[in-house]
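[stage:ingest] chain + small molecule (zinc ion)
[stage:ingest] validated
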Amino acid sequence: MTIHTIGTYPVAIGKNPERSRDHNRRVVLDVVRRHGSLGRAHIAKLTHLTSQAVANIVDELVGEGLLMEMGRLRSGRGQPPIQFAVNPEGAATIGVEIAADHMVTVALDLSGRLRAKRITSLRKTAPDYILSAFTSELSAVEKSVGARLLGTGVVMPGPFEIDGMTSVGPTTLPGWAGIDAAQALSEACGHTVVVENDATAAAVGERLFGAGLTISNFCMIYFGVGVGLGIIQDGVPYRGAFGNAGEIGHVTVVPKGRACPSCGQLGCLEGYASVYVLKEKLACAGITDSEFGDLERLHRAEDPVAEEWIDEAATYLGPMVAMLENILDPQTVILGGALPDAIIDDIIIRMGNLPTSVASRRQRDLPRVLRGKTGQLTAALGAASLPFFDIVTPKLETSLAAAAGVPA
Ligand SMILES: [Zn+2]
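[stage:predict] done
[stage:export] tokens:
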């Protein structure tokens, strides 16, 4: 699952005062968000900023409606400090998941709460058709939320612009080859749209609001129609030189194995562990109702086709987890996306004893594999977190966040 790059994160702040100021605002917003509520002195202590700098930034953020006063915290003697928290009503972001057959549009407030949700089915994937559906869904959600809009994020499947892997299979979006999706979507709705591949967006969503909230280095294996990988490294997504990092769906897991439904090569992971293959197997057995709720029901009834797919997915995903650990050394690997929680839990259980890897430490704070927490709407919520992520996340999170006492 891949797409265009949405820009890079600077590795150094330099001496540019404007950039430092912007960075400090992010640090303050992020530290308050992660702690729930904090007083000015506490913020200064955690961020290593001067009291004056914190006072100025807090005033500015309150003025903009991004932070709000929470009253005073009773503690010890003397005047108790005023507490500040992120203002949920301050602004909203919109996230749109464009899949081959449906579009999900959600709005999140600043606290990450879901404020609106619309799901519409798509009859075609042609750009003209999708762009018009996109603008009408967007304006419907915008109207229902009412709050100031901070930005719109879109996720769509790729990969794009790769010879032989471009819009050829059922897990990509036919008709979009060679189109600059970010530009087309921005022009259609009249404001800047951030576009990302679904797996990376899902990982950002888990990092901000889900299982990755306190984990700064993790991999997320994402079930869309295909299988993707989002990588969070030192708190920010790792995209690779061309924005295509994480295309694990097309890693060979069985040499000379099954033909991949997407790229046509033999033995890709996507040919075994994808939701697309599960639905194909069900269809072959005469089961054509295989939407999210149907999968939940089939799993509960221990449908043999679903059971067989879960076994097979676990067989190929277990070694993949160990490979990711050996290559990237994450704190944990999160499994999530468009599958019912109970099925993901079962895949994790059936992976059994994972192959030994660099992650086979005796002392671990976290299990090697966790289930994601953002559920069925993972991709759309991830999309909505993209503009949010740009606002609250310090772009140089590595050492500064640690220095700021942000739970890593
Ligand atoms: Zn493939």
